[in-house]
Amino acid sequence: MADKETPWDIAQAAETYNIERWGVGYFGVNAAGNVSVRPLQEQGAELDITKVVQEARDRGLTFPLLLRFQDLLRHRVQTLNEEFRAAIKESGYQGQYRGVFPIKVNQLREVVEEIVDAGAPYHYGIEVGSKPELFAALAMHQDNESLVICNGYKDPLFIQMALLGCKIGKTVVMVVEKLEELRAIIEVSESVGIKPYIGIRVRLQSKGAGKWATSGGENAKFGLSTSDLLQATELLKQHNLTDRFKLLHFHIGSQIPDIQTVKRAVREAARFYAKIWQLGFPLGYIDVGGGLGVDYDGSRTSLDSSMNYTLTEYTRDVVYNILEILNDEKVPHPNIVSESGRAIVAHHSVLIVDVLGVIEKTKVAKESSDITPTHKLVSDLLEIKQNLNKKNRREQFHDAVQIKEDTQSRFDLGLLDLTTKAQVEVLFWEIVEEVIHSYPNPKSMPVEVRNLLPSLGDQFLCNFSVFQSMLDHWALGQLFPIAPIHRLDERPQHHATLVDITCDSDGKISKFIDNEGVMSETLPLHTLNGNPYYLGIFLMGAYQDIMGDLHNLFGRVNEAHIFLDPDEESGFYIEETIPGNTIGQVLADVQYDTATIERALKSQIDAAIKADVLKPNEGMRLLESYEQGLKASTYLQF
Hints:
Elements: H1 10-16, H2 19-23, E1 27-29, E2 35-37, E3 47-48, H3 49-58, E4 65-69, H4 70-91, E5 100-102, H5 109-119, E6 125-128, H6 131-140, E7 147-150, H7 156-167, E8 171-176, H8 179-192, E9 197-201, H9 226-238, E10 245-249, H10 259-278, E11 285-287, H11 311-329, E12 335-337, H12 342-345, E13 349-359, H13 376-387, H14 393-412, H15 418-437, H16 447-450, H17 453-456, E14 458-462, H18 466-469, H19 471-476, E15 482-484, E16 494-499, E17 508-509, E18 512-513, E19 519-520, E20 523-525, E21 534-537, H20 544-547, E22 558-564, E23 572-578, H21 583-589, H22 594-610, H23 616-629
Parallel strand pairs: 4-22, 5-6, 6-7, 7-8, 8-9, 9-10, 10-11, 11-12, 14-16
Antiparallel strand pairs: 1-2, 2-3, 4-13, 13-14, 13-21, 15-21, 16-17, 16-20, 18-19, 22-23
Helix pairs in contact: 4-5, 4-11, 6-7, 7-8, 10-11, 13-14, 13-15, 14-15, 22-23
């Protein structure tokens, strides 16, 4: 939180929540003190997110609410392709860029449709890693000049469907992940009489970095070793498939934070490509895989939740390093493929949650000024509180800590009553709060004081499930930018953590991004004033939608898909709303048939009526409430 001496304004708010850095031109703070979004960056209009939320509310959508800015999605596709085009033109590279979107990052039909449509002028294709994804891709893919890349392990049905795509004119490339898979591809293709397009994933020595570093290196789950690669080339020659080996692929992990990792891997893979071409395989494509990062924390560093490079630097390093190696080897330049998913979809999605209440550490029914001391420990703490000032704050803080520890020891021995213990706790946390507030910012605090900040932090209860909407935060410690979407022209008063509505102690957020892009244990938030208070969780478009967990049976959230429209007074329109899961739907997901459980409850109500426990009209009202409740949202509604 900003120093108290610093005047508060919207510029200070943007700095406090680091919006300008992680927002990369898409998100900012407007003059009204609300978070705004520019789906086309400076090329398009600015929307007030609070107005988008209100429009969605007017459509009947409740919280939590996921906003998808479809124009932003298109802009990301266009930007990636244009950056590769610029790098190719600038360098004199002779191949083309033929990117693919890995739909595992976000398989939702509306997302994939938008990406395919935006990518059509660039012949931007699709990457799949499973049979269901392939079935979806074959239907969604319309441009035969673009690629369908098939990664992952493959059974006969998978191979047959890929060959079907080839038969109808698509360039469906099956990437071999292990040697046995190549034999299966050859066997199935010969049985149906369709020649496959084949790619091979090589296992590089170069390892990734960050949370997904194990995707590369000698012990990676996927890919062929050098000796396996040579066996594969012999097998292809034996079956007259030399001309069908089209693509060399590698992947060193998702969210690569350090550009040096990218450079090393690209150079090693380019050397592999050259050596294979020199063995008599014309190839034509080099697939550099995924890994293009997203700067979630805005620090622009090699931390796990960041990246120390720009999109421009990434595309140029890929192009120039391939060019340099292949020129050295005197090998023609192939088309370049990348499987960048996170960088395409992360920014377009924002989760809006409403705050239901606050659990304040120092807010109690009786103020400390009304406390009548029942014990010397309480009297001593009252004296510390009354005499606290900037000169003695550290010494007084140490004394207060000692008294609190003595209190706990005496209570454990049965020497203190609950009233005294409660009074000590109230006074101690009020003293800690005063000590903390006497420093201009956390950096100026002594370590022992700063360490209590998370403990003092108020808990803001938010209407959502961490497990459904932010699984990567719980499972991997992934940081996501979080900020109020309004009241940013007001100075926040609370150091807070967030807790969700699940019955699980892990259902919380206690790691945040501070104004320098580093991790903080609290988030600056405003005092609730009786009006709705909304928080935005940003950069949510990659993986979170599809990986959500039904913990406590909290289901998918409501969605609104937003498009820019200069003809609308608001500057936008909501093209589509998608209701979240109902209680009945999530129960069906875990094998509770709605009709069956309704009958089961009805039989119990009938029995209660026969036993004269319920009147018939009461029983019918209860059953009707139950049936209507099955159609309600799994989240809280007030």
